[in-house]
Amino acid sequence: MVDDRMAQAGLSLVWTFENGRVIVSNDRSDIFSESIYRIDPSQTPGHITTLIRDSGGEESRLGIFRIEDNTLLLAWTMEEGVRPTDFQGDFVSRFERMYE
Question: What's the maximum distance between 2 C-alpha atoms anywhere in the chain?
Fold first, then answer.
C-alpha cells in the first residue's frame, strides 16, 4: 500500500502488511522499518497496536483503522498509552492497495 501523504510530498514509501508484520520501504525496496502489529476489528473504529523496530530501537504505538474498498485509513498518536478516537490530527495516513 502506498501512503498518500508521502506521495504528495514527492516521496514514495511502500507499506507491506502481511502475516502480522508491516514493512516500510521505498520503491527501490530499501527497508526503513519492520514492525509487528495486532488488530482488533471488533472495535469501532478498529484498533491497531504496533511495535515499531527501526534503527532508533523499539517503540509501541496505539492506533485506529478503517478499511473501505481498496483504501486503508490509519491514525495513531505519539503519546505513550493513548489511542486516537477519530481520524483527525497530524498522524493520519491514507493507503491505497497496490496489489491483490
Answer: 36
Cα four-point dihedral sign 21, 26, 28, 34: negative
Contact indicator for 60, 49 with CB cutoff of 8 Å: yes
For the stretch 42-71, pLDDT in tens is: 999 999 998 887 677 788 889 999 999 989
Count of the separate structural domains present in the chain: 1
* Contact (CB, 8 A) for 3 and 17: no
Give CA–CA dist 6/21, Å, rounded.
20
Backbone angles phi, psi at 29, to 5 degrees: 70, 15
pTM listed for this prediction: 0.75
Helices of type H across 1-100: 4-8
What residues make up the domain containing 6?
A: 2-96
Distance of CA 45 to the CA centre of its chain: 15
